[in-house]
Design a protein that fits this description.
The protein is mainly α. 70% of the residues lie in helices and 0% in strands. The protein has a domain of 32 residues. It has 15 helices and no strands. The chain is flat, with a radius of gyration of 30 Å. This is DUF2157 domain-containing protein. Keywords: Membrane, Transmembrane, Transmembrane helix.
């Protein structure tokens, strides 16, 4: 299914590992550059600004091609309007396939045509079905998943996750008021199930080039799980979808559950992130805690905003100060010290072994010394008057 040469994908993984080893102090920059030079590679842009520039160039090319096709098809009027987005989507898929066969990967040009094709798929289905959301979400989910499987395109994986979530939402809307009422709980269960599913796939992964895509999906599930039963999200969607206006002195059904969920889940994320040393979950937990505070602040203004911000800053400073003092001398586990692997002189001796194993270097051959030793006549003496 993957269009790219798997040897090039493996080489890309090796180059990324070499960069990690170089930043960790195992190998030098010259050795990393030598590894990169010796391994065939994709036409790829690792600089995000350069990649964005090529993306804009690709988008301009895509729009130009679609504009020329539109000029040719204007005579068809209504018929062309109904099929034009399908034609544009085919153009995007075709050019993306051509660029992939030319070994363009995460370059910017390929991003423009892949995302443009997915966008036109959504427009095409929307025009055909007159904006039927559940059908649009279904076909966009299929198209984005196929694009990820074929081109390992990470943004397509994100679009797939969003489209599947939209498919779930609009599917629950089909059940009327009951579906809308239980939507938070269904979304919570869906996010939890999808999280453990992707986590299991990551643990059993044998092909490293699928890791990033699964990690994106796994991270999306963490965010969706928290937002599914966040009090602010549930209350505002309840008013929007069901028209339930919360009067003074009243609250939404199961409000205590949503209050508890809003604060317990970020705490669980934080504890789990520290226990498993998961940096992504740690950042999500910080953002979730901040949004939980904003959620309560949105409905219950206990203090003026300037006083609340001042007190919040003082509390965060105190927590940070005492945490640093507590952790700065820790040698294992959670510590404030820099990663020792980045500055360890004891590990620098491993670079010769790494380079030798990479390029198959052999130790130097021994040379015969012109001077003969040995021949001692005493026990361990080592000589008997001659060399």
């Amino acid at each position: 299914m993957i269009v790219y040469d798997k040897n090039l994908l493996d080489n890309l993984s090796l180059v990324e590992e070499a960069k990690s080893l170089q930043s960790a102090g195992f190998i030098s920059k010259e050795q990393k550059d030598l590894i990169k030079k010796e391994l065939p590679a994709f036409k790829r842009q690792s600089n995000i600004l350069v990649r964005l520039g090529f993306f804009l160039l690709g988008a301009f090319l895509y729009i130009s091609v679609c504009g020329v096709i539109s000029l040719v098809g204007l005579s068809g009027e209504r018929i062309f309007f109904e099929i034009c987005c399908y034609i544009f989507a085919v153009v995007g898929f075709a050019v993306a396939e051509f660029l992939a066969n030319q070994n363009y990967y995460e370059h910017g040009l390929d991003d423009a045509f892949i995302l443009g094709a997915l966008l036109n798929v959504g427009f095409a289905i929307g025009i055909t079905t007159e904006g039927y959301e559940i059908v649009i979400a279904f076909f966009v989910a299929i198209a984005s998943f196929m694009m990820y499987k074929r081109y390992l395109h990470l943004v397509s994986m994100l679009i797939f996750c969003i489209a599947v979530s939209a498919l779930l939402f609009y599917g629950m809307f089909e059940f009327g008021a009951i579906g809308k009422a239980i939507l938070p709980f269904i979304t919570m269960l869906f996010a939890a199930g999808f999280y453990f599913f992707t986590k299991n796939l990551i643990n059993k992964l044998t092909e490293s080039y699928h890791y990033k895509g699964l990690l994106w999906a796994n991270t999306f599930c963490l965010i969706l799980f928290y937002l599914s039963c966040n009090y602010l999200v549930v209350r505002e969607l309840s008013a929007e979808l069901l028209g339930n206006e919360v009067l003074p002195g009243q609250d939404i059904p199961f409000s205590y559950f949503f209050y508890a969920f809003t604060f317990i889940v970020p705490a669980i994320y934080l504890v789990q992130a520290i226990r498993t040393k998961d940096r992504i979950m740690l950042w999500i937990s910080f953002l979730a805690i901040a949004f939980s505070i904003y959620t309560i602040r949105f409905y219950y203004s206990v203090l003026p905003i300037e006083v609340a911000l001042t007190l919040g800053g003082m509390i965060l400073f105190t927590i940070a100060y005492f945490s640093i003092r507590k952790l700065k001398n820790n040698e294992v586990g959670v510590t404030f010290k820099p990663d020792r692997i980045n500055n360890s002189n004891a590990l620098l001796n491993a670079e010769a072994l790494i380079v030798a194993s990479t390029f198959g270097l052999k130790p130097e051959a021994k040379t015969e010394s012109p001077m003969e030793f040995g021949g001692g006549g005493f026990s361990g003496g080592g000589s008997k008057g001659t060399f």
